[in-house]
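User: Sequence in, structure out. Go.
Assistant: Echoing your sequence, followed by the structure tokens.
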Amino acid sequence: MTEELKDNKQAVTRKKFSGVVVSNKMDKTIVVKVERVVVHPKYQKRYTVSRNYKVHDEENKHVEGDKVKFIECRPLSKDKRWRVLAE
């Protein structure tokens, strides 16, 4: 049974988020807080869940309070798996 190997390149869908810069004290890294609204399955109450992401900022141009969009990428360090989208 011989089969030809084809290049099955699938389009990679990467996660995209937007949030507010909380800290920019590290070199080429910013901490971005992302808030989302979740509905409780039983009580139907809405509440916010927030999470911090360490995002790669090559040019160190973002400061605290900026709104940024970022995308998933390869691991850049132990905690950094995100990079800022060019605006």
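User: And one key feature?
Assistant: The longest strand covers residues 16-26.
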